């Protein structure tokens, strides 16, 4: 095990207070104010740890900009619309979305842009990326800081970075999975001694009946509840992430370092840790706030409905042969299924004001 500054701190916390839930460990690893993974670096791109859809092709952000424009129209073209991005990474998606929004000057002039970002390092990168945009843009640590009003929220690969709890089925009930120290002082996974009281009350029957030893992952709903509360009247949110449409048992917690899988307990603060999104649970949380849920549909379906092919075709017309090939490769990566493509693994879900009809891209095939 490497000896990162955060590792020392977590070890001390465990020595003092006992084993900590996986979710607490993930929070510290990703967003510790000094040593958190996102707080200390820009992890994107070929030289980083992973690549996201907006970094693969400008078309991704452009289509989301056009989606937001259509939703603004569906909302009745309010004079001011808050366009919020949760976890905006390098700011690439917002830059491309705002460029596409130029097609309708009335929409652009109604825009008030809000970036919700926990990392001061990435906030600096985002400010640089958006430096030439002549629109009001503000940065926030939490969605709660964004002023009320008609709102469109975009969140690409945001939820997967939020901490996940793991619970393990035992004869005695569901026990929280925790991280403690073994005899050598290294991190080791274990179980809380007591079962969580009444944990399975809200679980689907399939999970309740899972055999002993099964792992179930769940997230604190707070972020989704905040997003839903914000859009339930005059708003819509688009959640894009990798995950499953039905809640199920199984472990999806994973760590990535320089585009390779790593052990989640290795090098705390130096590697990315994520877990798949449970879209069923997300939808339940949104509906509990009175919001309406559309989808999830696959990313391939969503981008195809929004016109990824015609846009790629238009871009290829003015491109060199090498650029044209790169556009084709990028579109394939965003829409194809299988190991190398994101088309099926990534899902798109809209959470919105129940009075809105079907939103672009969200009607299943
Ligand atoms: C996997 S990256 C995705 C970046 C971007 N959306 C993209 O698609 O390229 C996750 C983003 O969420 C931010 N983030 C992680 N946890 C957060 C939190 N609790 N609050 C706000 N932002 C957070 C990270 O700093 C980063 O910008």
TrEMBL record:
GO BP field: methylation
Keyword flag Methyltransferase: yes
InterPro entries in alphabetical order: NDUFAF7 (IPR003788), NDUFAF7_sf (IPR038375), SAM-dependent_MTases_sf (IPR029063)
Pfam families cross-referenced by the UniProt entry: Methyltransf_28
GO molecular function list: protein-arginine omega-N symmetric methyltransferase activity
Keyword Phosphoprotein: no
Keywords carried by this UniProt record: Methyltransferase, Transferase
Domain of life: Bacteria
SUPFAM superfamilies: S-adenosyl-L-methionine-dependent methyltransferases
Protein name: Methyltransferase
Species the sequence originates in: Pseudorhodoplanes sinuspersici
